[in-house]
Amino acid sequence: MPRVGVFGGSFNPVHLGHLLLADEILELLQLDPILFVPASEPPHKPARGLAPAQDRYAMTELAIRGNPHFAISDLELRRPGPSYTVDTLQALKGAGGRDLELHLILGSETFLDLLSWRDPQRLARLARLVVIPRAGSAFDPEGIQAQKVLKEIEQERWIRVPPLRPPAEIGKGVFLVAATSLPISSSELRRRAREGRSLAYRVPEPVRAYILERRLYREESAGGS
Fold first, then answer.
1. CB of 174 within 8 A of CB of 150?
2. What is the mean pLDDT of the chain?
3. Which of 64, 62, 71 lies closest to 206 in space, CA to CA?
4. Which of 85, 137, 140, 205 falls 20 to 30 Å from 57 in CA-CA distance?
5. First to last CA, the chain
6. From 38-42, 173-177, 221-225, the region with the lowest mean pLDDT
7. Which residue in 82, 4, 72 sits closest to 39, CA to CA?
8. pTM of the model
9. Does residue 4 sit in helix, strand or coil?
10. What is the three-state SS of 91-128?
11. C-alpha span between 205 and 179 (Å, rounded)
12. Could you read off the pLDDT of 52-110 as tens digits, one per residue?
């Protein structure tokens, strides 16, 4: 049965933290591939400071090139309007068949905001949620807010990774994964690019060269990570 990790985001720009996280999730959950899905119009992020969708797609493609366990989808770029994750998961399910298992990778801050997303209950039915606490965050999986989200999306509990029980015994639940998280933010990278500072050792070399060649982020004044 195909088990695919879905890693969506603005990737503005993609950086080494994204790649390390994807590699760890791939290994810990035995997924293959990790599918990167750059958003065309992220509904929860301001348009200001957002590089053109085709540039963000191109950078992500460059970043994962050569890794046979990473793949990329232009599904959200081909679909007009805001990039709603539930629509993406539905389309992937339709293309992959009933046996396809999707695992949606989310940061812990995103998980806490999940009830503001379009149809979060259906989203949780279409894919197993994989939540990764951000390094240094105060995320409390047993806290009131996190437990409210779990209840509203009709999931029974946290399933901590590691350890992980055999798939046949898992049942309903959200994976809480202790994965390595590098302290790199896209907003900081955009600021460095705007100021003409080094991006070396923060993004893959082909991505660094692409940003310089295309003069991306030189005019940015605001925007999320």
1. yes
2. 91
3. 62
4. 137
5. 34
6. 221-225
7. 82
8. 0.92
9. strand
10. HHHHHHCCCCEEEEEEEHHHHHCHHHCCCHHHHHHHCE
11. 24
12. 999 999 999 999 999 999 999 999 999 988 889 999 999 999 887 778 999 999 999 99
CA angle 162, 70, 181 (to 5 degrees): 45
Q: In 16-72, which ranges are continuous DSSP H helix?
A: 16-29, 53-64
Instruction: Show the tokens assigned to 166.
Output: 């055999």
**Mean pLDDT, range 210-216, rounded to an integer:** 97
Task: Delineate the domains of the chain, giving CATH numbers in brackets.
Answer: 3-182 (3.40.50.620)
b/e code 145-173 from CB counts within 10 Å (16+ = b):
ebeebbeebebeebbebeeeeeeeeeeee
At residue 221, does pLDDT exceed 80?
A: no
Query: Nearest to residue 137, comparing CAs of 107, 158, 174, 177?
Result: 107
Bridge partners for 160 per DSSP: 176
